[in-house]
Input
Amino acid sequence: MPKPRLSYQALTLEFHRPFRLSTGTSITRTAFWIRLENDEGWGEGTIPPYYNIPDEEMIALWEKKAQSNMPFPNSPAEIPAWIGEEGPAPAKCALDLALHDRIAKKRHIPLYKLLNLPKPKAFATAFTISIDTPEEMARIARESAQYPVIKLKLGTQDDVAHVAAVRGARPDARIYVDANAAWNPNEAIRHIKNLEPYNLELIEQPTAVDDIEGMGYVQAHSKTPLVADESVRSMADVEALAKAGVEGINLKLMKIGGLIPALEMLRRGRELGLKIMLGCMSETALGVTAMANLTAYADWIDLDAPLLIKNNPFLGVKYDEEARLHLPKGAGIGVEQVG
Output
């Protein structure tokens, strides 16, 4: 039997504190580390349970590609053909990242240069505070004074109380809120109106994933930019959101299949006048560092997963005292294994 072209390994990530969303609570997350033969390239496939993508579907793609006799790509343009159309987005993302990492390492250049992108900006990421009591969220915000941008998870019985508590604790902070699809359009309009006194910079995914028209309706009744997250998984979604009048989109490598679709959607979003947030799942520094190579074209970034995980297995992107991201200096994605 020929030697497998790649291998995969499940990693259990542990949150510093329970991560509570409107969709449920997690204390761990399973990430998958993909390694091309001879460790020539590394990738990651990680997705939250509420995306309803079974691990078995991701593993099936990796096992199939491990037996492929097709030569690895030598340029980014060849990557989509090697990956193919089959398989869930996070599984394809893992392959996309590993193949880009391999090519950039062979050329001895960082990922952003391989992608012909400007040098990434060093600006501050949002720091996420998940759902808890208003008092606890305020305490965390107060203890996180080094982070100038705070993102609050909402979808509680009294979201105003939670936001008010954090704003009282951090009058200096820029605040984003994320409802994770917890509201219907009329609820969203009411909640947003009640939240206006707290000077929010943006509101992420207020309505259901498939209710793009409803999100546009909410945007028409809100001065605060709305940013679609779970509703953005394809180019068709980008087009529909722009048509609906939503102001921004949150692109995440894991949900859309990697760097190539992310760049295509980013560029099309720009053409359509959309603002761009670059985000991440609760993933390792491998995936986050890859996405950090695209920040030259971002309006907002939410790339804080390594700050939320206490046993991150990789060294990659670094955060300075003002929560600004800085890439590692190595070729490719540039991450190393801890230890």
About this structure: The chain has two domains: 6-108, 127-337. Residues 3 and 108 are 26 Å apart (CA to CA). The mean pLDDT is 96. DSSP finds 13 helices and 15 strands in the chain.
